[in-house]
Amino acid sequence: xxxxxxxxxxxxxxxxxxxxxxxxxxxxxxxxxxxxxxxxxxxxxxxxxxxxxxxxxxxxxxxxxxxxxxxxxxxxxxxxxxxxxxxxxxxxxxxxxxxxxxxxxxxxxxxxxxxxxxxxxxxxxxxxxxxxxxxxxxxxxxxxxxxxxxxxx
Length: 153
Prior knowledge:
The protein is an alpha+beta fold. Helices cover 41% and strands 13% of the residues. It is built from 6 helices and 4 strands. It has a two-stranded antiparallel ribbon. A two-stranded antiparallel ribbon has the order 3-4.
C-alpha cells in the first residue's frame, strides 16, 4: 500500500508541475482559469519572462512542489504541495489592498485539478500494488500507476 500511495502522490505532483504555465479548462471547480491581466503580462515582459504562461516565470515555484509520504503502516498518508507562498496564492487566489488600490489574483487550482483528474489512476495503482503484495509477487521497478501494469493482474 505504501508503494501505491507514494506512486500516486508522485503522479499528482508531476501532473501539477506539467500544468503550470498553461490555462486549464474543464468541468472541475475553478475552471476554466482566468486569463492573465494586462498589467501582469506587461510586468512579465518588463522582467524578461514570456508574456502569457500563468505561474511560470523562473520555474522556481513549479520546482518547489514535492511529496511527503508517511512510514509504511496499515494507514499510509501522503501530502503533495509546495512550501512556496507563491504556490499557495496561485492555487487559492488572493486579494492585496495597497495605497494604489486593490489587486486581485484569481485562483488557479493546479494541485486540486491534478488530484481530481488522477484520482482513478491513483486508486488503480494502490489496488494493483496491494494485489501484487497479497499474491506474493514483487512490485515492478516502475511506478505501479503505469498503464502497462494492467496486464499483470
